[in-house]
């Protein structure tokens, strides 16, 4: 069987009006406080009244939406959201989409209509819209022995129906009247679809209907005995007990789903933290690693014992002269490369070549010949004199450095830790740009976490 949201509203509108009148009697203009951890809804009347609160959802003018409290369980005690879960389960069974959609676009009177429909499927018929500030209202169902209604009478039921009809909330009046009589434990009999008689302990009422609306009401003679009235009261109590049993099942569902969602949130948070740490570690490695671009095919060679390649001091016995080079053509280089292995294998071991045995493939120092002019010889003599002066100055400098090294050796040893510290500081400064963004990333991560953690509350309370 399927129903609409309006069908459920029609079924609850009259009895809801009677319970709201009872709540107004015991509360008056007193202040109220709600504590979901207890849970309790307290009216500061004289004497004070404490009722059981059930949070259905919130409406936010700022967000322009209604959000059910079951949208994300675990933020409130399970018993507090029991009525909302029960409404959702009934909505799934009856095909009422408004009761199963976690967030709805706000429209005029939507929150009240959802609350009235929830009353029909939970059996909790009093409600209180609690202002939460910022244009947000939390809609609660409240229950307790203080709200118990007196025995039904036709006079009271007639006044309640007339009062409820003034709100123009009910659409199908036959359904509304039939549901009200059965929920209150009164007896109702239908002569035709257009006429019904309600019988209670103090008498009876006859109602006429025209196009699903009440067109007339008058006093009537009772048509049933006290025995049939007692049976009607038992049927009403049986219906209330069935709804309470549904509430217990809904509480078990809320507890199970709350635990599942809690575990799911913890797992998602752990995965998010792990992914964030991995991303930060990967970025740190990339920023700390040397930038080696276009290194494919490059061969890295360790420096020789004599020092860095092409970075040696000039030899002491270097003589001035002329330098000439012989460039090897591509064809010749290819032939030489192909012939080199065969020549190396076929050639017998030989003593090291002399300085005279230099091939054209290497720079050749050409000694000055005897055909030079006197001017050229004079220039050469000046070069040699300058070279000798440089050698003498170099020798003096070397001796001076050797003496200074001997004197500063202890100081150098003592300052090793300082040098290491300075080197570490230098490396830290070099790595600092890579880590400079870490606090920002952590701030962004913390902000994303807070956003995710309070996402439900920000929507639920319209923040």
Automatic annotation (TrEMBL):
Q: Please list the residue ranges that the record marks as compositionally biased, kind Basic and acidic residues.
A: 256-270, 363-401, 424-453
Region annotated Disordered, chain positions = 254-463
Q: What domain of life? A: Bacteria
Q: Which InterPro entries match?
A: DUF6882
Q: What residue spans carry the Low complexity bias annotation?
A: 271-281, 335-356, 402-422
What is the name attached to this protein's record? Hydrolase
Q: Which organism is it from?
A: Rothia koreensis
Q: Kindly list the organism's lineage.
A: Bacteria, Bacillati, Actinomycetota, Actinomycetes, Micrococcales
